[in-house]
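Protein in question reproduced for absentees:

***
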Amino acid sequence: MTTVWLWAVLFIAGVVVSLSASWQLVVRLERLGERAGFSEASLGLVAALAADAPEITSAATALTRGQSSVGAGVVLGSNVFNLAALLGLAAIVAGRIGFHRRVVLLGGIPGVWVAVAGLLTVAGTLSPVGGLVLAAMVLIPYAGLLALRRQGIARLPLPGSWTAWLVSAVHEEETELSEMIRPSRGTWRDGLAAAAALIAVVVASVTMESAATVLGRRYAVADIITGALVLAVVTSLPNAVTAVYLARRGRGAAVLSTALNSNAINVTAGLLIPASLVGLGVATGQDLLVAAWYTGLTVVALAFAYRGRGLGRLPGALIIAGYLAFVAALGVTVAQAGVRPAAAILPAAVIAIPAAVLLAWPGGRPRRGLLAGRPPWWQRESLLPGWSTGRLWAVSLLACLVIGACDAASGPHLILIGLLICGPCCALLTARWQLTAISAAFAVALGIVLGVPDQIFATAIQYAFVAAVAAVGTVSTIGAAVLYRWNR
């Protein structure tokens, strides 16, 4: 018992020292960067690197000791938490954080690219060196671009429209970062303080990782839980507090760049570089699950940010719900001692379906139509005479529900999944691709869920049925888009 208390004290001390020293490291490196003439965007990258020092050091320590689940879990779990806390929670607290689409694309493309590189590496599709090369192909040019001043970007050998776009995107990000990062010029004292803070972060993070692993194994906690939930959340709390503060001040671009840059640096410096040196070991299905959730939630968050030119409370709540679903899925797989299809698919479907609905929902258009004297979209006539768009779309969803209820009631004796194509085919007559896409996604989701009462879940039969429904839904969505253009 005395040993347990000692490790608990060491863990708490490691957390406090590591986070405090990383904050000092951020401040000192920002001052040194200001003295070296770094741009505001480059200073933001430096600040993200310093703030990520606890995650990077903890992950590297675990990988060096052969604890691949802890190492990968710290980095990837921290990134999933960053999306929920830095973007989801910030959006809920602030009400709305606005982004320009240029800023979303500037940081989002490298962010998704690095996430996919990490996923392919954890899955074993790429070696750690291959994943590092793939990430560097985008991350190095991105960092180089942020290091350039406006005149330097304008002189790049690119078409004029491209350079103008890049100048605008980088300028928007730097405008907000310049208000967030206002360091004084550094001196040699800042260099010494930065070196001391870096040593303190390394020592404290190694102690924290060791203590967490020992305590976890003492109480039979899986390594992936220790890394992806405990260490990941603890090391990411300062970033979350900073993001909420920036969001309340309306600094949307700074919030987005902080989240995306932090995640990209985590994967590159905390996972790919150490794994290239010491190896990644044998990745488990739970490691792959964490990497898949990180990649998927990144895509969902960026899709919301791009479509809505920001994040409101509803998308923010959905991102947080995504993190909670990720925690639930990870907990179930640990309890089951493996990743089963239901545990991997169902929590993801719970988030993917409402996300698809929100993204496809024709927001803003009814209001413009009313201002022009036109009825709202749900009252407009569909291609079926005498039927409004809203009424026909409701019928398409109701048809899917009725088919699903009959299928579930009959159990394995009668499989009706194929009849779910009625939903998107009916929605096709609305001549609205968004509504048709929602009906198609709803039908596919029902096809996945109905595999359980039909006793064909995750079998070739279910895959064939779901693929057929998805194919019909895709064709119907494209057809609805064509019909909409013809009837405009």
The domain at 2-360 is CATH 1.20.1420.30 (A middle domain of Talin 1). Residues 93 and 131 are 36 Å apart (CA to CA). The chain has two domains: 2-360, 371-486. The two ends are 75 Å apart (CA to CA).
